[in-house]
Amino acid sequence: MSAATGKVKKLLQAFRKAFKAYEKNPKSNSLKVKCEDSLASIKIAMLDFDIEGTLETDAKSAKEQIILLREALELASFLSVMTEDMKSFERHVSQVMVIYRDYSGLVIESPRKGTILGLNLMCLLAQNKLSEFHTELELIPEEARQDVYVSFPVEVEQRLMEGSYSKVLGAQKSVPSAHYSTFMRMLVATVKERISEVSSKAYESTGEEGKIGLKSREFVHESLGYATELERIV
Which DSSP state fits 85? Predict the structure, then answer.
């Protein structure tokens, strides 16, 4: 084991411990800072990694470095969700996706991969980036889409497209991981905006006498009812 690998191993162990404590007490600013400082130290230490070069001379050590790098980026992604730092989340996910793609044939698949893929989809959905959502979904193999962490955001997106806002609300109670709750809160805000827009358009489509059709009226009242429920949740 190289000195760089040993150092990162030790730092990652400390990070795991701090992160676990932060998950149990997410309101603790001191634990948040501890996790961020620990992660920063890991990133600096990993600058000494030379995975490509090591693969040519010591494949076993290179694989160990890949796994350490992958785990650090996965936990960093989870930390970003907890601190609601979306730019940081997108950056870390983008980096770990490269690891998944480039080294899939060298190391065993990460047990966190499904969660990362699902959270990435949730992030795009919460930001109403539907085109990007479908692009990312197309990159996920069909068998992997059966994973509950991936199927959850897919089902939520389908409910959104159907206009089944009550089912979107109900999905908050069945998130596959606590990390999904952050994006569900963001999604609720997006749904509120959508209801408001659709309701406005429905009212604007009134007849000459200023009367709205029965179906449109029922839809508006139903939408406003969901909006009221959303207000209570948020």
Answer: -
Full-model pTM: 0.83
Question: Locate tokens 């001191």: which residue?
Answer: 30
> For residues 233 and 188, is the Cβ–Cβ distance under 8 A?
yes
Q: Is the CB of residue 15 less than 8 Å from the CB of residue 46?
A: no
- Contact call for residues 93 and 119 (beta carbons, < 8 A): yes
The contacts of residue 231 (CB under 8 Å, 6+ apart) are 192
d(CA 194, CA 71): 37
pLDDT digits (tens, 9 = 90+) for 56-111: 999 999 999 999 999 999 999 999 999 999 999 999 999 999 999 999 889 999 99
Q: Where are the alpha helices (DSSP H) in the chain?
A: 3-24, 29-45, 51-57, 59-82, 86-102, 113-126, 130-138, 148-162, 165-170, 180-204, 214-233
Q: Exposed/middle/buried for 13, CB within 10 Å: 0-12, 13-18, 19+?
A: exposed
Q: Which residues lie closer than 8 Å to 162 by C-beta, 6 or more apart?
A: none
Residues 6 or more apart whose CB falls under 8 angstroms from that of 232 comprise none
128/191 Cα distance (integer angstroms): 10
